[in-house]
Structure formats: C-alpha cells, structure tokens
Amino acid sequence: MGGAARYLGELEDWLLRNPTHDIRLVGRGRRLSPWWLVRRELSWPSGPRVALNNVGFVTGGSRRTLLRNALHFLDDAELAQHGAGLPRTFGTEVRIVRSAARRSDELVVPCTAMAERVARVVPALSDRLVVRHHPLSAPALSPHSGLPAILVPVLFAPYKRMDEHLQRLLDALDRLDIGCVVRPTATRAELPGLVDHPRIDLVGHLSPAEVVAEWARSTAAYYPTGLESFGYPLAEARAAGRPIIALDSAQNLEIAAGALRGFRPNDPGSLADAVGSALSDPPPAADPSEFHPDHYFDWLMGDR
Known about the structure:
Elements: H1 2-17, H2 34-43, E1 49-51, E2 63-66, H3 76-82, H4 90-101, E3 106-109, H5 112-121, E4 129-131, E5 149-152, H6 162-176, E6 181-184, H7 208-216, E7 220-223, H8 232-240, E8 244-247, H9 250-256, E9 260-263, H10 268-280, H11 293-300
Parallel strand pairs: 1-2, 2-3, 3-4, 5-6, 5-7, 7-8, 8-9
Helix pairs in contact: 6-10
C-alpha cells in the first residue's frame, strides 16, 4: 500500500515498456522473513543486484540497495517519541537493515533529508549514498470545480498520530469558515474519534489508480507527517499541479517545490494560512519532469 505500492507499480510499468532488459524480479507479493532473505541471496549469486525494500544483499555481484524507510534510521530522540507505535520486532529489523547496508556498494535514498538522516545515524554509510527522487508517472488533471475538498493520502499508522493532525485541520477550516470536505484514506476503525464529523468523508484504503481518481476530485491535499523518507503525495501534488498542505521543511520543499503550502508545527495560525492559500489561491503549474520513471529506472537498473 501507499508509496511502496506506487513505486512497485512504476517499476512494473517500466519493465513492460522495456521487455528487452535482462532483469529478473524476485519476491513479488512475499513478506520478508529470515528464510526468504536466505532464498533471495541464493536466487542470483552473481551479477548486478538491486534490493528495493531496505534490506540489502550480503553476498555476490554489484549490490545496490534502496533505503526507503526512515524508521530504520531513527535517532535516539525520535525513537523515544515514536517507539511505542512500532512492532516488537522493530529492533531486530533495524540491526538487519543497517548490517546489510554496510555490505552494499551503493545506497539509493529518495531525497536529501533521507541521505542526511542515514549519514547522521550511521556515519560509516556516508560515502556510498546517492540521492534519486522516486519515480512517478503523473496523469494530467483538470482544474477542480465544485465544493472544495482536501484529500488526506496517508497510511494511518499509530506512530503518525493522524487523529491529532486531522483535528488540527478541521479546527483550521472552522477558523476560516470555509465549506470543505476532508477525505482521509482511512477506515472507520483507524479513525474512530472523527468518523462522524460532518466534514469527514472516509474513502478507505486505495490502490494507486484509485488515489489518482481522488486527486482529480480534490482541490488540495493535506500531508502533515514529518517522519517520511520521501512522501509520494508531495511528488504527486507537484506533478499534477495541486497544492499540498504540509510542514514547511527542506525535505517537503525539495519534493513538492511550488506545490507546497507550508505550515509550522504546533502553530494553528500558520496552518490556517496554509489551508486558506491552498483553497483560494491559483493552483501551481504541473511539474512532472523531476520524477520521470524512465530516467530513474534506466539509471537504477543500468550497467555499472
């Protein structure tokens, strides 16, 4: 789901467009486990190998690993803040990911902030980090008309505290006195306290194609989380020409560029200003070129 599904869909589309490439895709639909990691090591013992799920290869060939999960590179303060919402096996995952990363020749990260995060937490990895924004095929969207609507395209993991973020958005809309519907990609079980709010219209868990359809129905998006390795909604907003209300951070500006309507954390006035701008100012121009899938995968899967 989420960004992982979007990334995999882009890869599969690229493979269909480039059938002559000698590429073998392994692990589709499998969950990581110690046994599967051993099998994956043995599946192609020589030649270039690319790991797309944070856990790099240990033996054989040229090894390139995509580090796409910021949770595996939390510092002590962040772990104290978010640790309660993480699974009990998380510590083991971190040790495996970091150990395997040390054996990779190149570590591909999707933004500058993720590179800085990895280098800060594991300085020994600094000299093999390469920044490449995730790939994205952007559909052309018509200007939105009708009642203003804000899409909230976030996976509602407990550590993200999305109920608190949504309440702040609803307070900002009340403060602005703007008629607007809010569409979170959540289920009733994930948002019990706000499910009956008159502004809330739950759309549930969506496939990437369904997310695109929701972008077409939306005036803007709200993406308040601050612990992301990339943030596909930021790229989607920039590529499609929709404003996105998100933290005023260097990472979000790098990815969303002119689509960002930034706000400061814990500042209701700043959030209200960002929401007002997203709903009333002219939308940004569509800018998909930064995320071109062919440029990305031609490099990632190329000879080296």
